[in-house]
Specification:
287 residues, mainly beta, Immunoglobulin-like, 5-stranded mixed beta sheet, 5-stranded antiparallel beta sheet, 34% strand, globular
């Protein structure tokens, strides 16, 4: 996650101008709601400048094959090995709007010049619908498919499928996520690290995609009954998690809630109990 920095855009602009003045070109890509192609070379870092505070969404299946870092209005992408065509998501922290990057990494060819940095230009006239509540059109006919099923399918397609294959659903809109949402109470019985990736809303229901990473050396079975919280439905992308460090050590769980987002559906974290603190006078301390 990139820390909010009011000087980030200026720093990125100054850095890009320095690159131009030193003889290195900067490729300009304009975001017009079509995925932007950003090829990579294995072992070579490529910089993407964008004048926005964004999070980088990397598909779990990439594992350690791609390093993605963001700082000061710039994104640093480095492929550690060949990567087939894969879609990354850049999410505007303020509005929730998405910018899609299609990356692919190949080994450098003999005599190939380093790839130039990329600057993404976003039209200011772009509408940001993510701040508005999602409502179904008045003329929409009743659907046979339950809303939780529609939301989970839509979320999975957005995270894993190419954009052209995503099935449009009237009324579904991107929802904002609370920054720094703590998920320690979601799966307290399993040694996993959880991080919320994205959320969508339809009518009065939300779906939140949460990335799960195994931090143990053992295989883990994922059971929806182990989830702690007030959920309408839940579904795992994969039924198991491989040991930490393996390509299979991450997956995504889709959590559907009603009436509010994920933050309000989680059980509160319990503070550690210290019997020696704030005991009434005359009460012996526990040993």
């Amino acid at each position: 996650m990139m820390m909010k920095n009011p000087f980030g855009a200026l720093a990125a602009l100054v850095l890009s101008l320095c690159l131009v003045s030193s003889g290195q070109a900067v490729e300009i890509l304009r975001w017009q709601r079509l995925p932007l192609a950003v090829p990579l070379v294995v072992g070579e870092e490529r910089i993407v400048f964008i004048d926005r505070n964004v999070r980088v969404g990397v598909p779990a299946q990439l594992g350690e094959r791609l390093r993605a870092q963001s700082a000061g209005g710039a994104i640093y992408l480095k492929a550690n090995e060949a990567i087939p065509p894969t879609r990354l998501q850049l999410q505007d922290v303020e509005s929730g709007a998405l910018i899609l990057l299609d990356i692919a990494a190949e080994a450098a060819r003999e005599g190939q010049a380093p790839l130039e940095p990329v600057r993404i230009v976003v039209e200011e006239t772009e509408q940001r619908e993510t701040d508005k509540p999602s409502k179904l059109p008045a003329s929409a006919s009743p659907r046979d498919t339950p809303i939780p099923v529609m939301l989970i399918r839509y979320a999975a397609q957005n995270l894993y499928a190419p954009l052209r294959t995503v099935e449009p659903v009237a009324g579904i809109a991107r929802a904002n996520l609370r920054r720094g949402l703590a998920l320690d109470t979601l799966l307290p019985t399993l040694p996993v690290r959880a991080r919320a990736l994205a959320a969508w809303r339809l009518s009065d229901q939300w779906v939140t995609a949460v990335r799960l990473a195994n931090v143990s050396a053992s295989w883990l079975d994922l059971d929806p009954r182990a989830l702690q919280g007030d959920f309408v439905a839940a579904s795992f992308q994969h039924p198991t998690l491989g040991p930490a460090g393996e390509p299979t050590d991450t997956t995504v769980v889709y959590l559907v809630t009603r009436g509010h987002g994920l933050a309000e559906s989680l059980p509160p974290a319990l503070a550690p109990f210290h019997p020696q603190v704030n005991l009434p006078k005359g009460v012996p301390h526990a040993r």
